[in-house]
Amino acid sequence: MTSIKASRVPAFLRCRTRPLTIPEVGQVILLIADFDVFPEIPVSPEELNRAMQMKSVNARRAFLAGRRVVRYSLSLWLSLNPMDISIRVSPEGAPYFEGEGMLFFSISHSSELVMVAFSRNPVGADLELERPLDMVSLAERFFSKDESLYVREKNDLGIFFRLWTCREAAIKADGRGMAKLLSSTNVKLEEECAASAVVGGGEWKVAYAMIDQCYHAAIASRQQPSLIHWCDLR
Q1: How do 113-119 and 87-89 pair as beta strands?
Q2: What angle, 0 to 180 degrees and rounded to 10, lies between the N-to-C axes of helices 45-52 and 57-78?
Q3: Over the range 141-165, which residues count as b (16 or more CB within 10 Å of their CB) and which as e?
Q4: Alpha carbon 22 to chain centroid, angstroms
Q5: What is the distance between the alpha carbons of residues 127 and 131, in angstroms, rounded to a whole number?
Q6: What is the side-by-side strand order in the sheet with 27-34?
Q7: Domains of the chain as residue ranges with CATH
């Protein structure tokens, strides 16, 4: 595992050492894996049933991979059986840990990768594989006016995905749901690896990085973490 100061977040460094303790206050642990990670870790009957209802095989694999990463990590840190981890789903559809102490997590996936962020404070994570798309039309449909104009001016697919992941991470950190917050979100890109996002009147700090030069990743929290632990499990 590699510890990186969050004020300047570089591209992910691939390490296979797994974090043995929960994140300290003000820190984030971020795990990246493929969909076959931890095949020995069981999921709950409810999670398995939800996965089986998904028509897309890839969506099913992504969902189960995220839940296995969460159950593995929490069982390791809390010395519990993975099946004894209580994971609930909010009315807005966000999973959360129901147990002693405050420990938050956020799951995201794209293509063949899953990413999970853990923190003692509310946190949001988003991962997107860069791919060809009509960025101007999508920005005009989903972004704020300022963001949309910025995308049109820069005409840069990387800028579009950077904005996209930063706003998705911030909305997930807020927790009130995409439908309620999409139109009240505005992202301002700052230095190369950071941004700020206003979501429904609240401000979030976003750390941004590239994975494998083709995945865009963003982590949102109320305050910029003092340290982010990146761990690549592939």
Answers
A1: unpaired
A2: 160
A3: ebbbeebbebbeeeeeeebbbbbbb
A4: 17
A5: 13
A6: 2-4, 227-232, 27-34, 113-119, 104-110
A7: 2-232 (3.90.470.20)
194 close to 208: Cβ distance less than 8 angstroms? yes
pLDDT, tens digit (0-9, with 9 covering 90-100), for 210-234? 888 999 999 999 998 888 888 989 8
How far lies 134's CA from each of 56, 89, 159, in Å?
Answer: 24, 33, 13
Under the banding of pLDDT at 50, 70 and 90, the label for residue 15 is: low
Tell me the per-residue pLDDT of 107-122, one tens digit each, with 9 for 90 and over. 999 999 999 999 999 9
Q: How many residues does the chain have?
A: 234
3-class DSSP string for the chain:
CEEECCCCCCCCCCCCCCCCCCCCCCEEEEEEEECCCCCCCCCCHHHHHHHHCCCCHHHHHHHHHHHHHHHHHHHHHHCCCHHHCCEEECCCCCEEECCCCCCEEEEEEECCEEEEEEECCCEEEEEEECCCCCHHHHHHHHCCHHHHHHHHHHCCHHHHHHHHHHHHHHHHHHCCCHHHHHHHEEEEECCCCEEEEEECCEEEEEEEEEECCCEEEEEEECCCCCEEEEEECC
- Please state, in angstroms and rounded to a whole number, the distance separating the CA atoms of residues 94 and 112: 21
> What is the C-alpha to C-alpha distance for residues 92 and 57, in angstroms, rounded to an integer?
24
Query: What residues contact residue 184 under an 8 Å CB cut-off, 6+ apart?
Result: 198, 199, 200, 201
What angle, rounded to 10 degrees, do the helices at 145-154 and 157-174 form? 160
